[in-house]
Specification:
It is a single chain. By secondary structure, this protein is mostly beta strands. The chain is 0% helix and 46% strand. Strand 1 and strand 2 form a beta hairpin. It starts with 9 loop residues before the first strand and ends in a 17-residue tail after the last strand.
């Protein structure tokens, strides 16, 4: 196992597809069998851990399929590289499908986070809708698919 360098922040390119899946490509020198991407819910105790596998030279990849449910809210992204140390990820390139329900974004502090949104839902025969409260500092407009 080759340790990853902690000297510079780890950058992650993200792709959010229309089905709700997320792909994270982390720029890292070396590879490790124990590398993990960790998403921590900002408002609760939930945490999702995904393996980071070698993708290309200097890149590790983690995929969060749409079949994995995430509660609504903001999730902070970290990388754990096998030494019990987790580092906040810094966003690289972000590609978000217009109807994505899981939206990666850069926080005000320059870190990578993911916002999971639940769409408005019908309220009976009159066709009214139930709206959700949105963060006024959210990077994009509300998306429709469910998380």
């Amino acid at each position: 196992m080759t340790p990853l360098s902690h000297a510079a922040p780890l950058h992650a390119d993200c792709i959010a597809d229309s089905a709700g899946g997320l792909t994270f490509d982390v720029t890292a020198t070396g590879a490790t069998d124990e590398a993990r991407l960790v998403l921590r819910h900002r408002e609760g105790p939930e945490e999702v851990t995904l393996p980071l596998a070698p993708a290309t030279t200097g890149r590790l990849r983690a995929a969060l399929p749409s079949s994995v449910a995430l509660p609504e809210g903001h999730w902070d992204a970290y990388a754990s590289v096998g030494d019990e140390h987790t580092d906040r990820l810094v966003p690289g390139a972000i590609d978000v499908h217009p109807s994505a329900s899981r939206v990666p974004y850069e926080t005000r502090q320059g870190n990578l986070s993911v916002e999971c949104r639940v769409p408005a839902t019908p309220l009976g025969p009159r066709g009214g809708t139930r709206s959700t409260m949105m963060d006024p500092h959210s990077p994009v407009n509300p998306a429709l698919p469910r998380c």
